[in-house]
Amino acid sequence: MLKRPVWNVAGTALALVLATNAPASSADLGAKDEPIKLPMLEYTGQHVSTHIAGQLLQKLGYKVEYVTASAFPVFSGLADGTISALVDIWLNNVGDIYPKVLATKKIENIGSLGLETREGWIYPKFMEQICPGLPDWTALTKPECVQALSTPETAPNGRFLDYPSEWGSRSATILADNSMPYTAVPSGSEGAMVAELEAAEAAKTPLLMMFWSPHYTLAENEVGWVKMPPCKEQAEKHCITQPESVKIVWSGFGAKWPAAYALLKELKVNAQEQEKMMLAIDKRGQDLDAVVKEWLDSHGSTWQPWIDAAKK
């Protein structure tokens, strides 16, 4: 879900203008000589979705440029057209910037990515022996559980490993709302969170943390999901709801690249397939482009109808 440096379109080392292959002949491509700029956010699942979109856009005859971006500033780029389309963004992690920009009509939500997602508090399964009553959240308030999760940094409170500070923290608010004796400690990065989970599993060290799925590490580490405490208010910062990943485009996208617009509206990504690709990239060190290409080569029946619809 998630490293937020300031986004940079021009001059980024990650920017790649990709060559066209298999151009479409009957589609209204529009400004096909101008690259469609797709932002790469800070997590591998989004990279996978973005490169699926990028390689399919190439098949239609477009040029694609990948640019680095962060989840909050990316909306400014979408609003002024310096970024073209964002094909995988979790709406529960965008604060109030997204609805504000959407209200200006400078961006357009073109629908769900179809990704089955989950977000919340997790713990290694062995902790159910340390904190009887898990996964119910009230088990976390028992003194023996708080003590097990306490560290010199947080004592007498238990330690809660939160998202990196740039991502924002709903957990700190929820802990306070429910008078839970925990201190939310921001992680340094997604990689640091994964490393802590793997280390906790290996050493059987208690850990409570914010996390999300799909994620490759959950295929290798058995975790439980906390049944969350009630929301004090029905507001984003007071609740963790199951996220929806949607596709957002610059408001002029459809007029400028009609066939690309039609394709992206059709685009869907399966969570299990995304997780397998993430595992290949993050754990096995395989190349992102190659992994996505291999998936496309073996799943033509999935995406060919999207290409066909875009060519009409």
Automatic annotation (TrEMBL):
<dbReference type="GO" id="GO:0043190">
    <property type="term" value="C:ATP-binding cassette (ABC) transporter complex"/>
</dbReference>
<feature type="domain" description="ABC-type glycine betaine transport system substrate-binding">
    <location>
        <begin position="35"/>
        <end position="297"/>
    </location>
</feature>
<keyword id="KW-0732">Signal</keyword>
<protein>
    <submittedName>
        <fullName>Glycine/betaine ABC transporter substrate-binding protein</fullName>
    </submittedName>
</protein>
<dbReference type="InterPro" id="IPR007210">
    <property type="entry name" value="ABC_Gly_betaine_transp_sub-bd"/>
</dbReference>
<feature type="signal peptide">
    <location>
        <begin position="1"/>
        <end position="26"/>
    </location>
</feature>
<dbReference type="GO" id="GO:0022857">
    <property type="term" value="F:transmembrane transporter activity"/>
</dbReference>
<dbReference type="Pfam" id="PF04069">
    <property type="entry name" value="OpuAC"/>
</dbReference>
